[in-house]
Protein: LRRCT domain-containing protein
Amino acid sequence: MRLKFALLFLILVVYSFAYNPVKSNDKDKALADNSKKVKVKKAELTAAQDEDDEGSKSLDEVEEDAGIDDDEQDDDEDVKEVPKKKSHVKQKKSKKPPAKKDKTRKSKKNDQEMRPIPESTSIPNMTSFDFFEMAREHRIDKLREIINDTPTGDIAKMRQITEELKDEIEEEDDSNEYQACNADTSPDNELCHCDVHEIDCSEITMESGDPYLRTLDVAIMKKDFEPITAKFTKNKISRLQNDKVLPKFEKFVSILDVSYNEIRFIDNDVFKPFTNLTKLYLSHNVLQTVKKDVFDAAKNTLHRLDLGYNRIKVVSDNSFDTLSKLKVLSLDGNPIKAWRKEMFKGLDSLEELSLDNCNIENLPADIFEYLPKLVKLSLRENPLEEIPAVVAHLKSLKDIDLSVTNLTEIRDHAFAGDSDLEEIILEKMPFLTVVRDCGFCGLPQLKTLILNDNKYLQELHPNAFGYIKSQPGHKSAAITSLQIHNSNISTISEHMVDYDNLKTFQVGGNPWNCNCDTQFMLEEKFAFKQDSVAPKCTSPAGLNGRLLVTVRASDACEDARFLGRSGRFSSVLGLALLVGFIAIGTYYMVSSGKLERLVRRVRKEPEVTYTNLQNAGEDFALETDFQPRPAEV
Ligand SMILES: *[C@@H]1O[C@H](CO)[C@@H](O)[C@H](O)[C@H]1NC(C)=O
Ligand SMILES: *[C@@H]1O[C@H](CO)[C@@H](O)[C@H](O)[C@H]1NC(C)=O
Ligand SMILES: *[C@@H]1O[C@H](CO)[C@@H](O)[C@H](O)[C@H]1NC(C)=O
Ligand SMILES: *[C@@H]1O[C@H](CO)[C@@H](O)[C@H](O)[C@H]1NC(C)=O
Structure:
């Protein structure tokens, strides 16, 4: 027993000695750990300080603190981070003064601990618009409910609310008014260029203080100036505020260009005083939503609206509901996730729609159902692998641009619905290699086809526009402009289109194979004056590098050798020879009396043949058949 005790004691002593050496062995590591701890502590401290400073902190930073980034994918977000974010928002809203910092922090803690137990709070039919209509307080409550419920799918909704809250909080009245069009008072230092009916405040850099223009609140000093066009592009404007956009001159402005700024928020009533606003350019800003109310104010005059290259992810149904006068709309370059026909509802006059660079892989067949007048559609720079069916089936559509898409070939009847397309543009296609048999069939109205700069395009099928002898209306016969420059085409068929009808025919920059098939292009009528790069032969080797206009058909094609350069001439010669032979033959027969004998022999033939008799009999039988029968007694 005593031995055991002693042993235990010994082990304890050994252990206590052994412990320290281990620690000292790993001294470096331990040190590093320590400094890390210190750093973490420091970070915590600064974080705490930051929290206290929240009143002056932008929500962006708050959001970053919370680990949520604007550009991040919604799905990637950790739900756990959400409560933290929410409490930040609340703090920000309440704007507690720094003096009460301890209290603030405590209250935050309490807030988290004492949060009510989640009730059933699923809000399936809530849209962003509903949220917007609600009071801010109410929305915060909703936010809390959603957070408590923590359904991952609602994060997008929550983000929307915080965005809106942020927008409302951000940038309270900073009315810094500048004097513009002040050439008379300070001729060397005029802010904005004002001329005739245009005020141009683009790309302003000022010398004193903040060099950037962040407002549209400028005082126009020029007398009797009526700014019909107002340009404020490439500045750092972040908000369009009520009564702060060209105040007192609103009614003159017809064209307002505020593209390339940092606009994140637009007040609802900002366009109310703009009674003559027809064109509004808002592209290249950071707008996240399309607010119906904003554009409602200009609904009677607005013809053109450019919302391209913003950060719009969702266009809610009926967003453009009241813009029945709008003719041109651009939503280019926005990461819009879902395409539904309802988002275009109400755009009764829309003629041009641009959806370039929207990451569209396909479009629903009914997407443009509410656009009865859509004539022109641009889908450039989308990863389309097929031509969307709606393109071929939309009766009103006349111009389509499918350039820079992932199409690999133009298939048989690719556009043939019941299509009235007049212009098709397929430029700079990274994968397009071939236009198949009948690829442009069924396009009786097609006037312009542009296939420029398709470096892999090698083949245009001879029947690409319809069979050579096809029915009228089937062959695309109206074509007047065919452009295929800078592609990889070496041959095209003489019969592909009616080249005589072409007003524009550009073929430069292709590796032409100058042989009997392409000999027709060597005719004098083709001067290729519209080509910026004159077309050249690449093969055969003997003609490599020669301009098409300098090559004689006889050099390219053996058969053409004795018939001269013009193919047309050869056929004329052939016809002349044929007529000559017939004339000689006829003369010989007449002069030798053979013709007279022939005529006499024909006359001797019996006049009524067996078949004639039979036919007559049948006619008679028919006639009796049609006699009305006597009534039976
Ligand atoms: C949501 O649906 C409920 C009934 O399910 C209805 O009472 C409520 O008004 C709807 N809310 C909205 C915003 O449509
Ligand atoms: C409205 O704008 C047009 C140009 O779009 C201009 O001709 C017209 O004078 C403007 N009307 C007023 C009242 O300024
Ligand atoms: C389309 O092509 C681009 C390259 O041009 C490629 O990055 C993208 O993944 C393609 N998209 C699809 C859906 O194939
Ligand atoms: C161009 O076409 C030729 C065949 O006509 C082919 O051998 C070549 O690889 C093509 N070039 C490109 C860039 O596709």
